[in-house]
Amino acid sequence: MHPVIRLYKNDLSMTLRLSIPIVIAQLGVVLMGVTDNLMIGRILGAIPLGAAGVANSLTFLIGSIGIGGLSIVSAFVSQAKGKNDYEEINRLYRAGIRVAWYLGLGLGLVCLVAVWQFDVFGQTAEVTRLAKPFMLILTLSNIPLLLFIAIRQLCDGLSHPKVAMFITMSALLLNAFLNYFLIHAMGLTGAALGTLLARCFMALAIWMYVRNDSFFHPYLTRISQVSLNDLIVKILRIGIPGGFQFFFEIAAFSLAVIVIGWLGEPQLAAHQIAINLASTTYMMATGIAAAGSIRVGMAVGKRSLPAVQRAGTAAFLLVTAFMVVCCILFLGANEWLVSLYIRDNAEVATIASTLVIVAGFFQLSDGIQVVALGVLRGIADVNVPTFLTLISYWVVALPIGYVLAFPLGMDAMGVWVGLLAGLTVSAVLLTYRFYTKYHRIRLEEIDPEQILH
User: Which string of DSSP letters, residue by residue, matches 297-329?
Assistant: First the structure.
């Protein structure tokens, strides 16, 4: 076997092994929301389900800045691991937890303002009445969620992601159990309380595991006395733009829901089916992106430009292969996939089947753009990619979608073609950014602050 092929084979194998537990953990988070919706809808009915959906969307949208912002920590940890700098890993672990508290409290205040001004969202009186207390409890639950994510960055950055996978899947079962009893006892508030308790379990379980498992002892036993302020500032300064990358995409898709809602109820229902399918494959792609970020960060720590290039390329190859399979599935089995959601509404099924075809085409763009963001985080390049995502979604995707849907009369299909255009622009620009940027970083004196611009 040619030496170059052998190197890429090793990189692909290592990235795949690292990706699988992260993908499963990501799916666990998605399934937790699905479980909540299924139980609320079946036990309480449509109006509580609508209230929970609005509250969940708003809380997650605001919290996404923190979720995306903390993801940079795993890249820093992997860089320190590449340099065998145990003290730096120790400081990053503690600084990440501190930042999680700050973000949890700061974003929590934003959520409280949203609850206080909930009437501006134009919901019915009953939905507003139910959603307010639900959103308050969800806001509180974002704090343990961010703490879990902060500690998870240590595990993922050290290529030890199975910890978070098992804890997330355990929390999924706990959440379902708690929901069943608490919804019957307390109504919609019980579902939010179940989520809060499940997230507290996640934060406590991962903290105890890291504290007691022998694998982590070399990194945590000798606590550095050096101030954490420099790392806290670095995580916030580089992580917050990364969080806004996540925010811009989620906000764009949330606004697309509103635009499609103007077209009518059948279009909105069809959109929900197609976006649910696309979101599932997207979350799996984010696992490959996280693995790519960690592997690139480790290569940076080892000061090897060829290793940086191979790690990034391996992530691109993996996500391309995975998304091509998803694309073929969406194109060839679109009607069957839609039938899993709805059987007795031919209009919705017809629209949804068409949208799933478009979703099949944007699988590849969606996967490549999220992996590009991941490998760029691995070299701590976040400011320009954040601007590129803003342009792709808010200057390309949404305006094109609106024009195609309304003036040109393409209906819901027009909105989805706009999303496809934005995702494709994002994929091309971000991939180009990585391959023109990585070889210009000075690995001899690597410092994330040097490559922000």
Answer: HHHHHTT-HHHHHHHHHHHHHHHHHHHHHHHHH
